[in-house]
Specification:
- By secondary structure, the protein is of the alpha/beta class.
- The chain has 2 domains: about 140 residues, Aspartate Aminotransferase, domain 1, CATH 3.90.1150.10; about 240 residues, Type I PLP-dependent aspartate aminotransferase-like (Major domain) (Aspartate Aminotransferase, domain 2, 3-Layer(aba) Sandwich).
- About 40% of the residues lie in helices and about 15% in strands.
- It contains 13 helices and 12 strands.
- It has a 7-stranded mixed sheet with strand order 2-8-7-6-5-3-4, sandwiched between helices. A 3-stranded antiparallel sheet has the order 9-12-11. A two-stranded parallel ribbon has the order 1-10.
- The longest helix is centred in the C-terminal third of the chain and has 24 residues.
- The protein is globular, with a radius of gyration of 21 Å.
- The two termini are about 40 Å apart.
- The structure holds pyridoxal-5'-phosphate (PLP).
Length: about 400
C-alpha cells in the first residue's frame, strides 16, 4: 500500500536511478522468459573465498567471544594486519590505532566519508565516469558535483590542468580511483605526484579508491597514494577484500591514511553501526596474511579471461588494448549507438548482461563495461551468441532500441 502522505527526504530525490538496480529488474524479466543469462554486469567475483579464510572464519565462529558487539574501531588484530600489509606491499608506515579503520565494505566507507565531511552546497570533484559511490555519497550529503570528464585521448587520466581555478579554490574533496573502474585505466606515479601537489596547493581532501590494488597483470604494480610524499597530510585510501579474495558478500574493507580524516569517519560510524562481525575480521586478517602465490593465481585467472575475451571480440571487429589491471573490459559501442541502447540490445538478443558505460556518469557514454566474472567456456558462449545475433563493432545496420 502506498503512503502518499509521507514524502521521502530530498537527499533521495537528488539521486539518479541506480542502474544496477534497473539491470536487476531487466535480468529478472529475461529469466522469466527462460533466457539462460550470462551475467557479466556487476563486479561480483565468481567463486569462493580462499580455503584458509573460510577455515579461519569457521574457527572464529566457534568462539563465543566473537559473538558480541565488535569494537567500534575494528579489532586490533585486523588493524595490525592492515598496517603490516601496507608495510609489506608499499613500504608505507601507518599507525594501526589512528591511521587504519576497518569498514563494512569500501562502498560503505566511501559513501559515509561524504556524510562526515560534505555540507549541503559543498563542491566535490568526481571523475566521470566513476564508481557510483564516488558521486552518490556526495549527492546524499547534499554536495554539488563538479565532474572531471575523463577522455580516451588522455588514457582516461584526470586532466588536473583543466580544472578551472575558481572550481579548484572552492572544492573540498576529490575522489579518484586507479586502476580505474570502469575504464580499466592505470595511472603512472607522476600523475599521483601531480594530484597530490594540486590537492595540497588548493587544500582539497584526496580520496583514493585502490579497490583493484592486487588485480594487476603482466607484472604491473599499482601505485598507492600513500607512497607519495606528503599524501598522508591531505588524503586517505580505501581498500576492499571483495575483489582480490572473492569476499564481496562478506562486507569487509578498510581505509588508511590521514588520522584526522579517519577520525571524522570513525565518529560518524560510531553513531551509525557497530562495525564488522569479529569472525569476519579474523577471516579478513587471514586473507591479508596469505602468501603471495594466492594473489598470483587470481591474477593469472583474470589475465587468461582478459586475453580470451579481447581475442574473441577482435574477431568481431573490436580493437581493445589489454588492460594492465582490474576485472573488466571497457568496450566501445558501435558508432552512433548509445550505451543503454546497445546494452539492452545485447541483453535481449543474446542473454548476455553487460553494464552501459553511462551508469558511471556522462563520461562513460559510448562504452560498455564487461566484467571478467565467468570462466572462458562461458565467455566463449557469450561470443558465440554475439556472432549468432550479428553483433559486431561495425554493425551499424542492426536496429537498436533507440535508433
Ligand atoms: C572502484 C570500486 N570501489 C569500491 C567498490 C565496492 O567494494 P566493496 O565490496 O568493498 O564495497 C567497488 C565494487 O565494484 C569498486 O569497483
Amino acid at each position: 500500500m502506498s503512503l502518499n502522505w509521507i514524502s521521502r527526504a530530498d537527499r533521495l530525490s537528488a539521486l539518479p536511478p541506480y542502474v544496477f538496480a534497473r539491470l536487476d529488474e531487466l535480468k529478472a524479466r529475461a529469466r522469466e522468459q527462460g533466457l539462460d543469462l550470462i551475467d557479466l554486469g556487476m563486479g561480483n567475483p565468481d567463486g569462493s573465498a580462499p580455503q584458509p579464510v573460510i577455515e579461519a572464519a569457521i574457527a572464529a565462529l566457534s568462539n563465543p567471544q566473537n559473538h558480541g558487539y565488535p569494537p567500534f574501531e575494528g579489532t586490533a588484530n585486523f588493524r595490525h594486519a592492515i598496517t603490516s600489509w601496507y608495510q609489506r606491499r608499499y613500504n608505507v608506515d601507518l599507525d594501526p590505532d589512528s591511521e587504519a579503520l576497518p569498514l563494512l565494505g569500501s562502498k560503505e566507507g566511501l559513501t559515509h566519508l561524504s556524510l562526515a565531511y560534505v555540507n549541503p552546497g559543498d563542491l566535490v570533484l568526481v571523475p566521470s565516469p566513476a564508481y557510483p559511490a564516488h558521486f552518490r555519497g556526495p549527492l546524499i550529503a547534499g554536495g554539488k558535483i563538479h565532474p572531471l570528464i575523463l577522455k580516451p585521448e588522455r588514457d582516461w587520466i584526470i586532466d588536473v590542468s583543466a580544472i578551472p581555478e575558481e572550481v579548484a579554490r572552492q572544492a573540498k574533496i576529490l575522489y579518484f580511483n586507479y586502476p580505474n573502474n570502469p575504464t580499466t585505466a592505470t595511472a603512472p606515479r607522476e600523475f599521483f605526484e601531480e594530484i597530490v601537489a594540486f590537492a595540497r596547493h588548493y587544500e582539497i581532501m584526496l580520496v583514493h579508491d585502490l579497490c583493484y590494488a592486487e588485480l594487476a597483470f603482466d607484472g604491473y604494480q599499482p601505485t598507492s597514494l600513500l607512497e607519495i610524499p606528503g599524501a598522508k597530510e591531505i588524503g586517505v585510501e580505501f581498500h576492499t577484500l571483495s575483489k582480490t579474495y572473492n569476499m564481496a558478500g562478506w562486507r569487509v574493507g578498510f581505509v588508511v591514511g590521514n588520522s584526522d580524516i579517519i577520525q571524522g569517519l570513525r565518529t560518524l560510524k560510531t553513531n551509525l553501526d557497530y562495525g564488522i562481525f569479529a569472525a569476519i575480521q579474523t577471516a579478513a586478517q587471514t586473507a591479508l596474511e596469505l602468501p603471495d602465490v594466492y594473489v598470483h593465481k587470481v591474477q593469472e585467472r583474470y589475465t587468461k579471461r582478459r586475453d580470451f575475451l579481447i581475442n574473441g571480440l577482435a574477431e568481431l571487429g573490436w580493437n581493445i588494448p589489454p588492460s594492465k589491471a582490474t576485472m573488466y573490459l571497457w568496450v566501445p559501442t558501435p558508432v552512433g549507438v548509445s550505451s543503454t541502447d546497445f546494452a539492452l540490445y545485447v541483453l535481449q538478443n543474446t542473454g548476455v548482461v553487460v553494464t552501459p558505460g553511462n551508469a558511471f556518469g556522462e563520461g562513460g557514454e559510448g562504452y560498455l563495461r564487461v566484467s571478467l566474472i565467468a570462466e572462458c567456456d562461458r565467455l566463449g558462449e557469450a561470443l558465440r551468441r554475439f556472432k549468432g545475433a550479428g553483433i559486431s563493432y561495425q554493425s551499424e545496420a542492426l536496429v537498436y532500441p533507440g535508433s
